[in-house]
Specification:
The protein has helices spanning about 10-20, 30-45, 55-65, 80-90, 110-115, 140-150, 205-215, 230-235, 265-275, 275-295, 320-330, 345-350, 360-370, 380-395, and strands at about 1-5, 45-50, 70-75, 95, 125, 150-155, 165, 170-175, 180-185, 200-205, 220, 250, 300-305, 315-320, 335, 370. By secondary structure, it is of the alpha/beta class. The chain folds into 3 domains: about 1-220 and about 255-275, Type I PLP-dependent aspartate aminotransferase-like (Major domain) (Aspartate Aminotransferase, domain 2), CATH 3.40.640; about 220-250, no CATH class; about 275-395, Alpha-Beta Complex (Aspartate Aminotransferase, domain 1), CATH 3.90.1150.10.
């Protein structure tokens, strides 16, 4: 069986988790802080906050940016639903903009057209997605966002280690906080770094960082410098005003959630992170081979190509008989996948008036797209078999 994606758990990973399980903390312990620090260094940002999963990361970002009922936020229809759902969790309104045919990413020209067609202040933010691992040009989006007073949440679940080249010729890592207010990553088993479930938020904004820490844990703070109740109330008796707050005291100052990470997941994450570069290089090798095979192929309508800075979570091809190829591969135990059904055509979003032909490029892409097996432990022989089966299908 050859899946489209697969985790790679080594003896090193198992040992790391075992040691964590033998420790004093299962959750809210020092290993989480260590993982956050190492991940921030890997991405190149100031702050990182580990959370329960990528969806929790998106939700906390929307909360931290104060998304309110009626706020309009723009995102792409070609993404996992969570990229849009996080806005709905806060009562905001999701506005989809179509994709670029060549990159499969949110089309900045479509976004700009939406902004120009409405009075300033109509929209509050943008959620661009580094779909399949290809880094979106956030410098251009930042310029547009600043013009209209918008914030940016970068969904980088597919692209740890990915980057784009900015106008000065510099590499800009996905999630480094130089252009987006907040960014998120996922540690789902098929992702580059796997912790079972889990996610990470990255930012360079200290104020947002502190707000995220509070929201992650029920809205509770132990920071005495911002306590609102008196020290006498905290102590349960009259004490001098300059007394220290008792060690047990904490305050819930806002409505938060239990979106915490665990120490043993963090231990697994640290171990996986130590191999992140190696895994990314292998993904690029596989993608390069796919690219060489499909370039100028008369049966392939489009494909991911081989692009600088692409993190290759997915390698997507476009074919006319997608259903036929999908079924043929499954008959040969190759479990390709579809990424994604356009969000605006999900029944939930259709209730808000979205309908077929609203996003013609995304809808045409969906008719043809197929994600091929791509993960670091995919062998050369397995990839050759995938390519051989694709060619056999085209000859039928």
């Amino acid at each position: 069986m050859i899946p489209y994606g697969k985790q790679n758990i080594t003896e090193q990973d198992i040992l790391a988790v075992t040691e964590a399980l033998k420790g004093d903390f299962l959750t809210q312990g020092p290993t989480i802080l260590k993982f956050e620090k190492l991940f921030a260094e890997y991405i190149g940002c100031k702050y990182a906050v580990a959370v329960a999963n990528g969806t929790a990361a998106l939700h906390l970002n929307a909360l931290a940016l104060n998304v309110k009922p009626g706020d309009k936020v723009i995102t792409t229809p070609i993404t996992f639903a969570a990229s849009a759902n996080c806005i709905r969790y806060c009562g905001g309104e999701v506005v989809f903009a179509d994709i670029d045919n060549d990159t499969y990413l949110l089309d900045i020209e479509k976004v700009e057209a939406l902004l120009k067609a409405a009075p300033k202040g109509t929209y509050q933010g943008i959620v661009p997605v580094d779909f399949a691992g290809r880094a979106i040009d956030l410098e251009a989006f930042r310029k547009l966002a600043d013009e209209y007073g918008l914030w940016i949440i970068q969904d980088s679940c597919h692209s740890p280690g990915g980057y784009f080249i900015d106008s000065k010729g510099q590499k800009q890592n996905c999630g480094n906080g130089n252009f987006a207010d907040l960014a998120i990553f996922s540690f789902h088993p098929v992702k580059h770094i796997a912790t079972g479930e889990g996610g990470m938020i990255t930012t360079n904004d200290e104020k947002l960082y502190k707000k995220l820490l509070e929201l992650r844990t029920h809205g509770i703070t132990r920071d005495a410098s911002i306590f609102q109740n008196s020290v006498s109330f905290a102590a349960g008796q009259e004490v001098p005003e300059n007394s220290a707050y008792p060690g047990w005291y904490m305050e819930m100052q806002t409505l938060g959630y239990n979106y915490r990470f665990t120490d043993f997941q963090a231990a697994l994450g640290i171990s996986q992170l130590s191999r992140a570069h190696q895994g990314l290089e292998r993904r690029k090798e596989i993608a390069k081979k796919y690219n060489e095979h499909f370039s100028n192929h008369n049966k392939i309508k489009g494909h991911s190509g081989f692009v600088e800075g692409h993190a290759y979570h997915l390698y997507v091809i476009e074919v006319e008989d997608r259903l036929g190829l999908y079924n043929f591969l499954r008959e040969h135990k190759i479990f390709a996948q579809i990424h994604y059904i356009p969000c605006h055509l999900m029944p939930y979003y259709q209730q808000f008036g979205w309908k077929k032909n609203d996003m013609p490029k995304a809808e045409e892409y969906y008719k043809n797209c197929l994600s091929l097996p791509l993960y670091p432990t995919l062998t050369n022989q397995e990839q050759d078999f995938v390519l051989e089966c694709i060619e056999r299908f085209f000859k039928l």
